[in-house]
Amino acid sequence: MAGGIFIAASGLAGAVNAFAKVEEKKNEEVSPPEDLMREHGVLKRILLIYGEAIRRIEAEQDLPPEPLAESAKIIRQFVEDYHEKLEEDFLFPRFKKANKLVDLVDVLLQQHQAGRRLTDITMRLATNQALKNADDRRKLADSMLQFIRLYNPHEAREDTVLFPAFHGIVSAHEFDSLGEDFEKKEDELFGDDGFFKLSIALRKSKRSSAFMIWPNSHQKHEENQSSLLSEIALVLVCSNHVAGIRD
Hints:
Layout: H1 2-28, H2 32-58, H3 65-97, H4 102-125, H5 128-131, H6 134-166, H7 172-190, H8 194-204, H9 222-246
Helix pairs in contact: 2-3, 2-6, 2-9, 3-4, 3-9, 4-6, 8-9
């Protein structure tokens, strides 16, 4: 009798633990819109670096090409070839099929295409040779400025209009299935929990030599520089991580 009670209790405990694990997994799951919105955080960080690069060009200050080239590479590989492809393959067609926000989707797609052309320019001019040429420096600053002006409202419209409306045009099953598809695609390209690993790597990089890439001689920019260098550290870590996955 006592043995039977023990077995039953053990079975109940196992069931409770299994249920708890399922609930924990559900709580950790990220919906498709939330997944895309958090990826916008990577874009925002690159825009900070672009902004600092523009400031340095306008002030005729030293501008090493490496952080800028790596930033543009992250834009190309993570934002354009991965993040935007998810939107173009999974979100945009469904909005058009549902005849919802079609005009907005058309504009967003055009902006994706324009952004890629700007990234081509930035990648081509983020070199030592180009930075020594005044005309090329001006063209580089202009490409980054246009990119910033393009993507600030772009991501705002997606975060506040497009993504919140997505749940209303697909079934609950399809919504959940897409979340799994997004996660599988991310793991395939960037490794298991790739997004979170990049975030952890940023915190671990605060004492790395990457913080010495762009030293600032102006005291008034000291606090902003500290934040900026954190972003540069992230870019170098992300770029190395992405390159390792794709090689």
